[in-house]
């Protein structure tokens, strides 16, 4: 009986003690939530940057409402992609003012903000190109927007696309890939898969400098030029800007027309391009069966870029005639077959996501002058011919200094005497005027 009474007293004592502890801890919070308080906030307490020190809850709520309205009028949230600005609508952001009456004392508290990830995702899909939208972290972008709004930042706020990229999505495929087939005479390529170029934002890339920095010693000068030409072709399908490019005087045999790159460290001939974007890209190379390839990885471009060789104009060569008295009458030698000159116009076509052309730019006009045809004729056969046409140039007879052009050895003194007959002397006088350079003709 005594044990039962003791147990009952003990249980009552435990319950009373628990009740007193609960009231002492939760009572003030419960009371303040149901009874209006006239107390003020402590010194240094802020809400979204608004100093509410010494204010009551009602006063703080009024001031905060005014602050939010001012923020909606003045604030700018800019989302920038490769130089293009997109402005997030502030109407999508809700402030739950009723929940802000119990901020932590002595610090700057964020204003509770309501912004759904689905709303941000919808705005992105309606305004941003699909390829770029696919690599954006929408949840992270939502957090950044809410962070700006929760502290009522009045100054214009910039959020770059590079800050909210899904890193794994950038390596799933190449933005641009170019392949160049090799001829049988250029198949001895070493593995170039270890060669890579990091293209930092707002940076200038020197091809020769990168080759030196990476210690590329296994590639010949011709192979380096072919690699630079392949890089140039790739660059033309990006927003990168070509700052320096050189090409030769004769039509290339190992590089495509319009895409030739002539490199020479001794002559200070380099290939240089510039990345105007705020994004970093990675340029890699690889050796393929029968070819080489260049690949570019990074954030998709805002626009699409295409390279187009618009036209190739040809300029016929002239015919340069030379005369040699040592040739058999009626014969001629061809010293140079000649080839036409060419003018190649290369354009860059910029299109938006719908395929509409935004801009067409003339990138380069490569001119290769014609190689003139050179013919060496016998004299007597051509003395009675008419004056040279507009496409022909006549030069004086080939003397002893030009005998290497005819493939014959210089004549001996006896041969000279035999050739100096009266007939030949008369013929030379008759056509002496032909040896003169026609007025206005190109030599």
UniProtKB/TrEMBL annotation:
Alphabetical UniProt keywords: Signal
Lineage start: Bacteria, Bacillati, Bacillota, Bacilli, Bacillales
One Pfam family of this chain: G5
Record has Magnesium as a keyword: no
Ranges of compositional bias, category Basic and acidic residues: 413-432
Matches recorded under InterPro entries: G5_dom
Organism: Mangrovibacillus cuniculi
Domain G5: 310-374
Bias (Acidic residues): 433-443
Claim: Signal is one of the keywords in the record: yes
Region described as Disordered: spans on this chain: 386-443
Domain of life: Bacteria
Name listed for the protein in its UniProt record: G5 domain-containing protein
């Amino acid at each position: 009986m005594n044990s039962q009474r003791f147990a009952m007293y003990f249980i009552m004592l435990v319950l009373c003690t628990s009740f007193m502890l609960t009231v002492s801890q939760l009572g003030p919070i419960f009371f303040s939530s149901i009874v209006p308080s006239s107390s003020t906030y402590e010194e240094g307490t802020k809400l979204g940057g608004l100093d509410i020190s010494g204010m009551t809850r009602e006063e703080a709520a009024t001031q905060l409402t005014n602050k939010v309205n001012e923020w909606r009028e003045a604030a700018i949230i800019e989302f920038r992609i490769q130089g293009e600005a997109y402005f997030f609508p502030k109407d999508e952001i809700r402030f739950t003012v009723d929940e802000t009456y119990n901020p932590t004392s002595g610090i700057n508290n964020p204003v509770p903000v309501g912004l759904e990830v689905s709303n941000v995702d919808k705005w992105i899909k309606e305004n941003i190109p699909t390829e770029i939208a696919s690599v954006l972290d929408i949840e992270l972008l939502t957090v950044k927007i809410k962070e700006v709004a929760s502290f009522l930042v009045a100054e214009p706020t910039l959020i770059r696309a590079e800050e909210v990229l899904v890193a794994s999505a950038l390596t799933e495929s190449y933005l641009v890939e170019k392949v160049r087939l090799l001829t049988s005479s250029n198949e001895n390529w070493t593995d170039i898969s270890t060669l890579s170029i990091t293209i930092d934002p707002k940076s200038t890339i020197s091809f020769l400098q990168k080759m030196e920095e990476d210690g590329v010693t296994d590639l010949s000068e011709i192979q380096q030029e072919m690699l630079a030409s392949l890089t140039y072709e790739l660059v033309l399908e990006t927003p990168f800007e070509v700052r320096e490019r050189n090409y030769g005087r004769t039509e290339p045999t190992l590089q495509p027309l319009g895409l030739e790159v002539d490199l020479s460290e001794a002559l200070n001939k380099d290939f240089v391009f510039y990345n105007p974007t705020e994004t970093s890209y990675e340029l890699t190379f690889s050796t393929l069966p029968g070819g080489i390839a260049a690949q570019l990885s990074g954030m998709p471009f805002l626009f699409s870029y295409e390279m187009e060789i618009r036209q190739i104009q040809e300029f016929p060569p002239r015919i340069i005639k030379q005369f040699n008295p040592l040739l058999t009458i009626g014969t001629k030698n061809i010293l140079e077959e000649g080839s036409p000159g060419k003018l190649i116009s290369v354009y860059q076509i910029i299109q938006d996501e719908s395929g509409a052309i935004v801009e067409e730019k003339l990138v380069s006009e490569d001119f290769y002058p014609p190689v003139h045809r050179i013919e060496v004729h016998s004299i007597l056969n051509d003395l009675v011919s008419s004056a040279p046409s507009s496409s022909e140039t006549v030069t004086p007879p080939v003397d002893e200094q030009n005998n290497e052009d005819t493939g014959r050895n210089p004549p001996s003194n006896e041969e000279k005497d035999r050739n100096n007959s009266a007939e030949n002397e008369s013929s030379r006088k008759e056509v002496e005027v032909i040896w003169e350079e026609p007025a206005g003709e190109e030599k």
